[in-house]
Write a structure and sequence with these properties.
It contains 8 helices and 12 strands. The chain is an alpha/beta fold. It has one domain: Metallo-dependent phosphatases (Purple Acid Phosphatase, chain A, domain 2, 4-Layer Sandwich).
Length: 241
Amino acid sequence: MRYAVLSDVHSNLEALTVVVADIEQKKIDDVMFLGDAVGYGPSPNECIDLLAKRCKICLAGNHDWGVLNRTDITYFNEYARDAIEWTKGVLTIKNKNILKAFPVQKEDRDEDILFVHSSPKEPGQWHYLLTLWDAEINFHYFDNKFCFLGHSHQPLIIEIRPSGELISYNGIARIKKNNRYIINAGSVGQPRDGDPRACYAIIDSENIEIVRVPYDVELVQEKMRKEFLPPVLIERLSVGR
């Protein structure tokens, strides 16, 4: 088993391109995408094209569903709503149809992994999993050894022992035989943990690792300005918030 797991690209082609190149350099064939291909950024069509071409599994996130009118966008903040409305205007019919085919969760029974955008608990309701308490609740909603998710844009590895004890890891965790794991793969295109570098996860038979890759933030920001996307969305890329 060796997978690369991506989430929350948010129309950031420059970040996605360097992540895909990093995965290619590491000679990882199987790539899983956990949702939110679009929203916020300036290159939705290009990102969908690349994800659909490269990924073995593609899921839908809340921004993807917002663009498709499957989720009520009134709960989004005003900047996210503006970006969604802009995305609706530029997305091709072909790529809308590609997004429509993305499920919100997928299971790999051979490797005992659940892939979901937000959380195992009510995956279409877009709950956030942010704390150990959230993790403790969600471990009851799946029985796989591993659950990969995104949505919060904050990478984290949480391990539960047979005793129920929870342990969190920030960078790398060695897989233990009798333990189970929730892994937030972070965000490729909109990191929010104070590190502006693109983020994704790798899992093999021994380890789970959070990987960071620098990309040309200023180029993405310039593209966003040309499309008159909200300044707050542009500025936050520099600081990873």
